Amino acid sequence: xxxxxxxxxxxxxxxxTWIHSILETICADGGLSIAYLYAPRxxxxxxxxxxxxxxxxxxxxxxxxxxxxxxxxxxxxxxVVRDPRDIVVSGYFSHKNSHPTDDFPELPAHRDKLKSxxxxxxxxxxxxxxxxxxVLGEMAAWDYHQAHVLELRQEELTPxxxxxxxxxxxxxxxxxxxxxxxxxxxxxxxxxxLNVLHWHHEKLVPFRSxxxxxxxxxxxxxxxxxxxxxxxxxxxxxxxxxxSHYRKGVAGDWKNHFGPEHVAHFKQVYADLAERLGYxxxxxxxxxxxxxxx
Length: 294
Known about the structure:
There is one protein chain. The chain is an alpha/beta fold. The protein has two domains: 5-82 and 141-231, Rossmann fold; 84-138 and 241-276, no CATH class. The protein is built from 14 helices and seven strands. It has helices at 16-30, 47-54, 66-69, 84-97, 107-115, 119-132, 135-140, 154-157, 161-171, 185-200, 216-225, 228-231, 260-270, 273-276; strands at 5-9, 34-37, 58-61, 75-81, 149-153, 175-176, 214-215. The strands form two sheets. Strands 2-3-1-4-5 form a five-stranded parallel β-sheet. The termini are far apart. The relative contact order is 0.15. The model has no long low-confidence stretch (mean pLDDT 90).
């Protein structure tokens, strides 16, 4: 019997590190293998072959390019996007201050440029940088009408992650909402412990116990362990730290940083992307007043 394939498709600066960390813990507990993939070189430009050869249960493709997804065998997945204007702002602060340069050869020169100019100039540079690297182009090229792929926005997932991940695992047919009674708990905990030992010491514990579907009770505990404040050094969503990879965590932050010239530049480069993704209803969107005048 062919095992089902599960998939998460994300994009740069769309909470992908946070989402993957939750999925990784679910897979560790549930006895599933998961692959963190961020570039075609991770899978030799052939995602389907890589999944088959490595016998992967769950792919976490955090810079999803639809061209490489087309050849996959049957799967169930979910896809997370974010307001592209917030991606630009988040990218500006992250690329300037905190994002790792490992496996990111373009970043050091871009970081030097951002550090040498004003924020207003830096946002223009970030708009162009995102265009050159196709960060937003991959979101624009995605097929948003696939019944087997649940479409989510970061703006709805991060404020209510408990409801969001229950919905995700239900869509993946991975959610077990059965009540875990006192008699079942020791057996479940023993299986969870076995899988965690396998995850960390595969040579010592070469086998695992697949827990599919996955208990909702344990899922909610995992999400609680990965709440924003834990990742952001105790800060709550909305409290900003420009040097942190988890800088602020709220939607619509672009309005605090874009001026009319950034709006015009964004529209010139990305045309109607904000409208196509449903973040605006018309092309007349903009900022109320120039940055610094509010």
